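Dear support,

I submitted the protein below through the web form. The confirmation email said the job was done, but the results page showed an empty box. After a refresh the structure appeared. I'm attaching both so you can tell me whether what I see now is the final result or a partial one.
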Amino acid sequence: MNLMQSSYNIASLIRKKRDRETLKEDELRYIIRAYSRDEIPDYQMSAFLMAVFLNGMSDEETAILTEEMLCSGEVVDLSSIPGTKVDKHSTGGVGDKTSLILAPMVAACGVPVPMISGRGLGHSGGTLDKLESIPGFSVNLDLNQYKQVLKKHNVVLIGQTEEIAPADKRMYALRDVTATVESIPLITGSIMSKKLAEGIDALVLDVKYGKGAFMKEASRAMELAKRLISVGESFGKQTVAYLTSMEEPLGNYIGNWHEVFESIQALQGEGPQDLMEVTELLAGTMIFLGGKADSVEAGIEQARESIRDGRAMQKFLDIVEEQGGDTEVIRNPETYPEASVQWDVTAQDEGYIHTLDAYSLGVAAVELGAGRMRKEDTIDPQAGLVLQKKIGAYVQKGETIVRCFSNNKQATDNADKKIRQAIEIKASEPEKTTLISHKITKEGVVSL
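What the results page shows now:
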């Protein structure tokens, strides 16, 4: 990298991006570094973020942005741990508990999985909140503990530490309050700076589109996937992405302990078809990239075998115990306390379910206590929804479609209304939709 000029006129750089010009490498590096040093105030950084949101960034600019955010903190060195380290990242959805299932599956197949995850964002659930619904489970390990647990068990599940991409943490807080979250280059920089800081060698991405995703259109999800691939490969990391639909929730359970419960079922070989289809593909790809299978298909078969022979479930128990969690409640999930308020949402008509709006169901779950409406809110691990029927099912009038759980009686009326609005029943059978539509690599796009 060239020696950087000590300072620039930040207003002129904002103007440049406002006028759709490409920033030079030194100019972009200066903005991120100066903001991290408090030399650029929030109001000017907000203006810059909005200019990026409106006018975008080139692939080269996005790679530089990612590198600066990455280098604002510590980049973990996992070279002392044998094997190809592989992680997975999802762009967020409703009922998406794939990380809880695939991390132990992949680790059981001999591939190290260093997983630094996030909390719930808006209507979308977070892996950390799900893990913390397990009594005693600690996601707050320091980087030394992170390495030790990974070396011992081939898997570790923690949250972002203070040392990991601190520039991203500051910029994300601004994006959240300046309506600039959905910018593809800014999403790319945020995701990839954290993932590259973990010490990974390869990455599998689940890029979601549809009602319950942050990217509503498949075309926007494809654009994001290509940008993520471009950045990952530019850092020398094998990166593979899949486009998956989030029109309806993934699996049948929504909410933190509810999703842990469904993950336990999945690890015992009783997971629902849609959840397992996505989980097995992601896991199989991780095993392939980790060098433990000759193809993705062979990796999928290994992942399935790890469930059949019990190794994946044992690995999950090992990591729960290692990170302070109660393994008895994992072995006997029926002993977990239930929410004080429970009720059913039933079919208003006879016919086929055409819509189970994932976004509306996610928002309803948040209102019941499964997510945060304000930053300071406390998660209720018992709150959530259990889907008794999915899109395409035929229901009789009065038949239960969604079972609801909460400890907040005041929230039930509004949530009930949202859930009813999320359901559409028609006389005709709906068309079959594709759950996993495309695979994207540096070589190009393949329809599945």
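Response: this is the final, complete result; the empty box was a page-load delay. The chain has three domains: 10-71, 86-162+169-331+437-447, 341-426.
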